[in-house]
Structure formats: structure tokens, C-alpha cells
Amino acid sequence: MDKKVITIFMFLLLTFSCNREQSGFYDAIVDAGDHDKSNNGTPIFKSIKAALATVPADNNSPFTIYLKTGRYYEKLTIDKPMVTFLGEDRESTIISFDATGDSEGPDGEKLGTRGCFTLRITAPDFHAENLTIENGFDYSANAAKNDDDPSKVKNPQAVALMTEQDNDRAIFRHCTISGYQDTFFGDAGRHYFYQCKILGHVDFIFGAGQCLFRECEIVSRNRENKSTTGYITAPSTLASYPYGFLFQDCRFTKVDTTVPQASVCLGRPWHPEANLQVSGSAVFIHCFMDDHISAAGYAKISSQASNGERIWFELEPDSRFFEYNNYGPGALESPTRPGLDKKSAQWYTQNQLLNGWRP
Length: 359
Prior knowledge:
Blueprint: H1 3-19, E1 28-30, E2 38-39, E3 42-45, H2 48-52, E4 63-67, E5 70-73, E6 76-78, E7 83-87, E8 93-97, H3 112-115, E9 119-121, E10 127-129, E11 132-135, H4 139-143, E12 161-163, E13 170-173, E14 176-178, E15 184-186, E16 190-194, E17 197-200, E18 202-207, E19 210-214, E20 217-220, E21 230-235, E22 245-248, E23 251-254, E24 264-267, E25 280-285, E26 288-289, E27 301-304, E28 310-313, H5 315-318, E29 319-324, H6 342-345, H7 350-353
């Protein structure tokens, strides 16, 4: 293509991008610092919750909410289909809340893992791009407190992003999902993550959903005074379904040098309520792994059954963890790190995992 044509094309693309806010491209704008009620007919809200209230209950077309830079301290549920969040800047457009498993809910009961989310998706076709979703609970400061300190949180699960119920076809592009323990709870439907960053340490990518992570950075944080500082995945895929989490061309890194070598496991086979119909699946293909990943690779985990019995689940036969063609100092061959051959790896593709859906 002629250089002059390319220059004109790029100029027009940039002009459209810079002016779509003014041109009514969005259905709503959220800007805590703007006191105007509209921008060329596009309503402006001071909170995301207020903007979400204007989405029709029977919404059947993309409803785009543009989030200006800022920290939005809100606990949100997306229960209407086809909602899109577009952030102005990935690093400075932040949706944040700081609830934990011990936080008190509206009914006076503890929220637990399922209730401590910052953002929960329960409807299909959600799309987020160019923003950060975080649980702002300070795990490290809490862990440093004495056990007899009444202010110490005993159940520090703190979910940033959760999907459940009717969630399906959820898309996340150029997003940061930040937390410590239980950062992303993907428990229902199909998900597509592209060039996202997910941070945490204990079981920070977990659940029963089908999730494709492409060209993402998975960042392990440190847990001080722990020989095993973290577990990246804890899938609870139903045994009747062949696919759970698939990582393709991702980078498994550590937040800094405080994370010791060989101290992080790639996963462990979570069985909610000791459900024997579960066989968690996480597959890692052509991923870079830094030296914090251990040679053991995986670890056992226990769950409490409804009768109170505690049951331990092992790598085999209680899970489906596999690796293929990974590289880097943490991509080690080990009897406890199951691998795939080239033929078997061909079953783990975007089309197979997403069951024909093409984001």
C-alpha cells in the first residue's frame, strides 16, 4: 500500500477515535469529575451504577458505556445482556472495591467467596476493554497482623472479577484484573481474554467456566514466609465437559524478585463441596514460564463434603492438567507435570474450547 494512503488512513482512524465521544458513539459516559448532564446527547453519569440503570431490561443490542479515567469505588453486577465497558486508559480507569469473604453483606451475613466480588457478570455478551478491575483488599497488610488482632480478616478471599449464572461469550481485551487470593472466579460460560494481565497468588484463576487466555500475562505475587507462595489455577471443570482453562502464548511472570524460585504451582484440582463430578482442566500451550514455577508443577487440595468430611484431591486421577511446547526457566519436565504430544495438543484450540464461538 502506498505510504501516502497509509498516512491518510491512520489520520482518519485517529480522528475518529478521538472524536467518537463527541459524536454520540457511546450510549453513556461515566465521569465522576464532570458535572454536565450530557455531551452532544450522550448522557454523563458520576457512577457506573447509575449508567447501568439506564440499560433496558430486555436489551438486545450493544450498549456501550465509556469510562473516563478515575477510580470508581463500586461493587457492581452486570445482569443485562450485551453491555460493553470501554475505558479511557487501562492503567488509570479503575473499578475497585475491597470486600473479602469475611465482609458483612446487606443481610448481616458474611459475603463468602461468591459475594466478595468487585464486578460480577451474570448475563451474556459482556465486553470490557482498556481498563482495570481490582479487589483493593490489602492482603499483605492483613497477613502481617497478629492472629489475636480482632481486626485481622480470617477469610481473605477477595474476588475482583466473577462470572456465573447466565454469563456466556464474555470478552476482555487489554484489561488488568488485579487481586491476591481468588482474583478471577470464572464459574460459568465461555470467556475470551486477549492481551490481559491477571495478578494474584492463591488460586487466583479458578472456577468451572471455559476460558481462553491468549497472549496474556499471568503475574504471581508473593506470600511472605510461605514455602509455596502461590497456586495459579484451581479449575473446577465438570468431568463431563472436555475443556476448562486454556492458556495460549501467555507469559507466566512474577511481580518482582521477592517471589522465590520454584515456589509457585501452576494449579490444583479444586472440587467445590467435594463434588466427585468435577475434574478440573487447565492446559498450557507455548507459554513462557519464569523461574518461580516449581518442578512439581501442581499440588493437592482438600474440600469439605456436605457431611463435614474433609476429602483430599490429587493431581491424578482428579484433574486434567497438561502442558505442551512451553519454554523459559520454569518450563521444566517432571513426572508430576503431565505433557501432551503434538497430536493430542491439536485438540486444545480456540475453536474447540469456545465451541464454535468466534469473538
